[in-house]
Amino acid sequence: MDIFIEMIQFPFMQRAFIAGALLGLLLSTLGVIATLRKMSFFGEGIAHASLAGIAIALLAGFAPLPVAIVWAVLIATGIFLLERYTKLPSDSLIGIFFTGSMALGVVLMQFTGGYQPELISFLFGSILTVTQMDLYIIGALTVAILTWFIASRRQLVFLALSPDSAQVSGVAVHRQLFIFYIALAIATVLGVKLLGIVLISALIILPAATSSLLSHSFKSYLILAVIVSEVTILLGLTLSYFFDLPSGASIVILGTLLFFLSLITQRFVQK
Prior knowledge:
By secondary structure, the chain is an all-alpha fold. It contains twelve helices and no strands. It has helices at 2-8, 11-36, 40-60, 64-85, 90-109, 117-124, 132-161, 163-168, 173-195, 200-214, 218-242, 247-270.
């Protein structure tokens, strides 16, 4: 207990826990809809595409997180528009933006020169790099996105389960889908601070997948996904501190273990 109290006295751990709690709520909530719409690859693509935004920020001397968010919004908008006005499938479009934007980021990084600790933290995540300003940005955007989600939750569920029926019923399908793309893109980039570009999509997928094994209604599905996400992030951060491990990898490994534990539990209960 004394060791735990000592841990939370560090300002960087306080910021990491607050950011983790906010991101756990945000990513798991959006992840439920993303999983229902089979959009798991979207988060992966946006995360990798954000490398170009980070590189631009480092070259220009700006804070990377706001620039990466703007870049992710532009990428999400491009995917949405091309998906709507061309015959190309969404996975192809995500792959095109993913690879093209990441390649641009790699090229731009050649001009930054020297060792870039900020880049390493974005690639693999780091609890040490969550600043007070990052916390303000994460908090403000989490509140804004969740306010929209709560107000639109019925439409989003309808849209995720049956887009055609939703449109017939008067749901503004294209508008809500566009906002969801933007919200998921922003949430993905925010999560990169803790989990890194390489691992962030896992936190969109794992809580929802774990919850789907144990829940029997949409309400329980959503609530359990949030609980799993919070436990995964907060316990993962704690383990990363005590054992001096990368925060992103610790969180994802723990989340994966919880998924397989839930899978075994489900099989056992069914028998």
